[in-house]
Amino acid sequence: LGSWVGGDRDGHPFVTPEFTASTLRLHRQAALKMIQDQLSNLASKLSFSIYQNAVPQTVLDDIQEQAELFGEDGQKALDRNPSEPLRQYVNILLLRLKHTIEDDRMQGEAGYFRSANDLLTELKKLREVLIDIDAKRIAKQWLFPIERLVQCFGFHLAKLDIRQNSAYHEEAISQILAASGYEDSDYANWEEDKRLSFINKELKRKRPFLVAGISCGPEADNVLGYFREVKTYVTQYGTEGIGSIIVSMTRSLSDLLLVYLFLREVGLQDTNLPVVPLLETIDDLIAGPEILSAFLNHPVLQEQRKESPSFSQEVMLGYSDSNKDGGILTSRWNIYKTEENLTKVGDDLGVKLCFFHGRGGTISRGGGKIHRFLDSMPPGSMSGHIKMTVQGETIANQFANRLTATYNLEMFVAGTARQAMINSSKTKNEQLYNIMNRLVDLARTTYRKLLDHPNFIDFYAKATPIDVLEQSKIGSRPARRTGQRTISDLRSIPWVFSWSQSRFNISGWFGIGTALGEFQKQYPKDFEKLKQLTNDWAFLKYSLIQIESNLLNSDTVIMNAFADQLEDPQTRQELMDLILTDYLTGLEKIEELTEASVEERRISKLENIKLRKDALRVLHEIQLEYLIKWRNLLETDPKKGNHYLLKLLLLVNALSGGLKSTG
Question: Residue 247: phi, psi to the nearest 5?
Fold first, then answer.
């Protein structure tokens, strides 16, 4: 189990070093309290009398020895259950656990649990005693769940990933170099060769850049601050509670190696914390294999690989930014090819890869049914190691109910095992790749035609309630990375969320309709081949099903109503013609490829939409009415405008519930 709540500071000013430290403490305390409650419950079940059960003398001696170590508290633990040695044993464990929770180390290592493995050793002894006295059912029913609990959650509950943007790291190292006296400290503007030469020289040295206590600048102080908190935690409790150091927007080898200089600066250079690239944009996905190959061949990684026979390299794939960058089909196809190419790099170097899929809840951000997602992975890309994000309302949807949680976990485990048994093909289907590359080029061209329109920003600002969403308090972080009014600066969640609220759902389908129409005109024989692939190839089949779902969830009446908010009639006409043509063609061409009407194939989906349609239309009408009033009052009467803003935020929640989707 992992988390980056309290560790992901990419564009989030409130995730400070202190917040990270408190998150790590909170994780540890929650895990220990959970174990404490379970041990207390176990003690109530172990009513075995010394007079009727032959408990080994070595166990009795061990109980007495540990009780003496704790003095008066130890004697109380014995007196609480006289003649019941197994309860006394658990009482002593609870006493040691209490000292662990309180970080009380006065009695030395025997007085607390240094790690979860120490507790597991004691529980194993208890299990052996229970088996010896023929109490196997007690061991299975009451002790085994605690052992499994400790194995799963340890004393850390969840591994906390630490994530920051590569551009932020560049600012930080520039400030560190300036503070330490470097004349040429503008690292952000160095060429890649210069960066690598500098980093490689520095990695051979053991000294830090700075004397402790020196302030360099906000970015440097923040970066070194949270790494120092990680160092404090690791020194005290070990590395079990720390996950990966993830570099958002990884675009070069230097982005990854730079992290090791930060680790050296705070004394973490020998902990072998995993440094993980996050490949987000289309260009980054394409460059990913080259970056990974250089990284795995670097002396730092070669040393780590030698030290750990079970070494695996984690690579995170971003579904959101690649979608925003090139559209859904471009994103999915490039991630598919990147997985293949990264796997080949790993295979060539004898390194197993763990793909970390940064999926969101919506289809636009990689969401959807887990078994379909796993089935559509490239053959041979599953090493048996996999990580996946579960975000937002998806957590409750999939895991709030025990039966639902069990089902989803079983699907995840079974799908992973199934994919791990599939080997990659020795021969590449060149025709398939040729067809997909041409189709994706057409789709991306259409998508960029929309986003690169000179007035697209104005259209987007008026045709979606993005300005309302930016005022909401429901996001995990600010809507924009740096506050600039650009599409690249806008976070993917509000991007998807805003299009969903105005029923365009552009992020989930735009580009595919025009691409399929043009492809059929230019390559009619290959279009017929696409029909076969739609039926036989899981990747294309499930991609088209998901794209069609987003098309069906869109509503042209609501789209036009929102588009009418743009004052410029020419821009409105140009962009709406582009959007609606793609929408209608998309529905038509997917029907052709599947060779069955949507009414035959999507009965349940259409019924679901029909049940919600009228109620959602009413909510949209109210939303538009209040949105117009609020925008008109922003400059003339902001106080009165706030009255409408609160109602608009409530409507956002209501529509999200009705649509069963946010961002």
Answer: -105, 105
